[in-house]
Fold this protein.
Amino acid sequence: MADWTVSRRALLGGGLVLLSACTTEAGPPPPRDPDDLLRAAAVEREEALLREYEAVLLVLPSLAARLIPLRVQHAEHLAALRGPSTPSAAPSSSATPVPQVPPPSTAAAALAGLMAAERSAGDAHASAALEASRELAGLLASLSASEHSHPVELG
């Protein structure tokens, strides 16, 4: 009969070889597409605008005829940014938004706040378009133009 005893050194050495074979790195992850960050920021801006519209509509439902068409446009912007593979995140009438700052209780103040938010988002989309790929730049420029037209409709 053969002697099958294995020294501790041989056992540990073999274990290290097996362990190192399981933990070899495949290399660094591929670099992140800069458009991903720009798109994510644009999504955040559109979601913030939707929350602001929802919050104003909760406090001032009398503005619904003016605000709902613009809110729908922002839901469309969000869908365009997310693309066809991501389900739409259109606001639901049953969802209760949680505004970060309570909206003003007067129509004039609420509309002024929405106009300022629209201009800010439009400026941010325009700035991001300068850094984006050609495909994303076109979408961001279009969103910027839309956002800059909304204060006219709100005024």
Notes: The CA atoms of residues 35 and 135 lie 10 Å apart. Helices lie at 8-22, 34-59, 64-82, 107-131, 134-154. The chain is about 70% helix and 0% strand. The two ends are 97 Å apart (CA to CA).
